[in-house]
Amino acid sequence: MTNSRYSVSVVIPAHNEEKILENAVLHTMKTFQSLNLDFEMIIVDDSSTDKTGQIADSIASCYPNIYCFHHGTNQGSGGAFRTGIAHAGKKYVMFVPVDNPLDIEDMEAYLPRMDVCDIVVGYRVERLGYSGFARFASFVYNRILIPLLFNIGLTDVNWIQVYRRNLFSSGTIRFDNSRFFYLVEILVKARRQGLIIAEVPARMKRRMYGRATNTRFSVIARTIYDMLKFFWEIREKNKKL
Questions:
Q1: DSSP string covering 156-212, please?
Q2: CATH domain 3-240 topology
């Protein structure tokens, strides 16, 4: 019998991930089945130029609880997550990167906190596959810049997170950013509203093919820009209160 206590919509954004998409989706699906959870999986093809969209459609046609939606233009990770939320139907919604499919022990870390928290944030114990520059940039971003500017008291703001879906459907939280910074935007707004957030240790797997988008210098620079822009917007808004 399915455990409906944990009803989860898993959103997987994918852009040009033809080599890893199918294995990642089926691996995560097997984990949820093994835990006997009530779940659905939503693949968002973010205007891929390879066979990602075709593979996603093929997977969705084989499994009744896997769905696929396509973007005509690239909208970024945040835009893909927003599309996933719009089509989600479970109690919780979870962002899972395509290059980090979940094992049973990964999901088990989140479950105990989901009953009592509005948001559960995974913090990476180790950053596998990161270059020296990427590790340095991640440290500065997570441990210096985000605490200094927003003081949200979290160790890692850029990894797998679980949210109560009604936070979005009720309009309690609205996020505007369409790139990686959307994860921080959600957490900052949640803290400002006094929502309950907990951290749990999470594993990071080494990417088998290609390079993670968020480790590219151009993406890191854009994320820093989005961070400073958001900080300025909050500062100006507070001046008017």
A1: -SSS-EEEETHHHHTSS------STTHHHHHHHHHHHTT--EEEEEE--PPPSSS--
A2: Spore Coat Polysaccharide Biosynthesis Protein SpsA; Chain A (3.90.550)
Residue 19 DSSP label: T
Element (H, E) at 127: none
Angle between helical axes of 76-87 and 182-192 (0-180°, round to 10): 60
Q: What is the DSSP letter of 145?
A: I
Q: Parse the chain into domains and list their residue ranges.
A: 3-240
> Is this model's pTM higher than 0.85 or not?
yes
Q: ∠164-169-38 over CA atoms, to 5°?
A: 45
Res. 206 pLDDT band, cuts 50 70 90 = low
User: Helix 132-139 and helix 217-240: axis angle, to 10°?
Assistant: 10
